[in-house]
Design brief:
single chain, three-stranded antiparallel sheet, 12 helices, 13% strand, binds 6-diazenyl-5-OXO-L-norleucine, alpha+beta, Beta-lactamase, five-stranded antiparallel sheet, globular
């Protein structure tokens, strides 16, 4: 398969469609990003990189980091984690407070904000220096020192974190939160403010396409079974209340972020990072989804 020609074809087609969305502005610093940016990087299981457009430009990965922290914690806790967070699609917006109340403090899945806060709380319990260790872990997955926390984005989110703070206190009220809210919130906004390029993102997702083994870290990151479970969660919950639509149109396990990025994998074949900051009304990148849809339409193989 000529991946380079494939992603160039997809890139050109998406550019010509002139899709429009809206750059996230509820974190004010994110609203400053140039909405016309667009890049795709595909990494095969030999570690070969194929890229087009702005694929080497760092962007704010936001909720995509929930996959990285989940895999860090999964490794440490194994299946014990699943008494604190469920594994069902939410069908609700990523920052829903109502759902957490209905479900008595057990978040639907680890990718909605409430679930990610439980995961970050577990991370803070387990790791001595969670922010530093998260950076080291993601660097290791990429096989290079590439992770940077954008301090402006971090400050901007901290100054506007009322909803996430409310979710954290709700979790605490239901005894599903062990650490001080401020401490977990700082670790959470730090992971969300990680900046990396499509190429680096695709490298960090590579082990999920490869039964848990990272060709960049040169080691087994998760067992084959755990990697399979993370992929199942990405397929069913990676796009919030648009997860069904993404599975229907694209058919790959993936995770989006409000920075406009998507990390996705084709098991046994490749991982991919796509970035375009303009979002649809569900908070997922308009062009990135279209690009992945065209890509899977053109591939001569599929997950299903
Ligand atoms: O917690 C938040 O609201 C953001 N830091 C991340 C949200 C996000 O990326 C949702 N993804 N589509």
């Amino acid at each position: 398969m000529d991946y380079q020609s494939l992603i160039e074809e997809v890139y050109d087609e998406v550019k010509h469609q002139n899709l429009k969305g809206k750059v996230a502005d509820y974190i004010p610093e994110l609203a400053k990003v140039d909405g016309s940016k667009f890049g795709i990087a595909l990494v095969d299981l030999d570690g070969q990189v194929y890229g087009v457009g702005d694929y080497r430009e760092p962007f704010s990965i936001q909720s995509i980091s929930k996959v990285h922290t989940l895999t860090m914690v999964f490794h440490a806790f194994k299946s014990k984690l699943w008494s604190r967070v469920n594994v069902e699609p939410s069908g609700n917006p990523f920052n829903s407070i109502a759902q957490l109340e209905y479900e008595k403090g057990i978040p639907r899945n680890p990718f909605i904000n409430a679930g990610a806060l439980v995961i970050t709380d577990a991370l803070v319990s387990k790791y001595k220096d969670p922010i530093k260790q998260t950076i080291e872990y993601v660097d290791e997955l990429a096989g290079t020192h590439c992770v940077r926390i954008d301090e402006e984005v971090k400050k901007s989110e901290l100054a506007h974190s009322e909803r996430n703070t409310a979710l954290a206190y709700f979790l605490k009220a239901y005894k599903n939160f062990e650490n001080p809210v401020e401490e977990v919130m700082e670790a959470y906004v730090s992971q969300c403010a990680i900046e990396m390029s499509c190429e680096e993102l695709a490298k960090t997702f590579s082990f999920l396409a490869n039964n848990g083994y990272s060709v960049f870290a040169k080691k087994q990151i998760l067992t084959e079974t755990h990697a399979k479970r993370v992929n199942a969660l990405m397929l069913t919950c990676g796009f919030y209340d648009e997860s069904g639509e993404f599975a229907f149109r694209v058919g790959m396990p993936g995770k989006s972020g409000v920075g406009g990025g998507i990390g996705a994998i084709m098991p046994g074949k490749f991982s991919i990072g796509v970035w375009s900051p303009e979002l649809n009304e569900k908070g997922n990148s308009e062009k990135s989804i279209k690009a992945l849809e065209l890509l899977t339409d053109k591939l001569q193989f599929s997950l299903f």
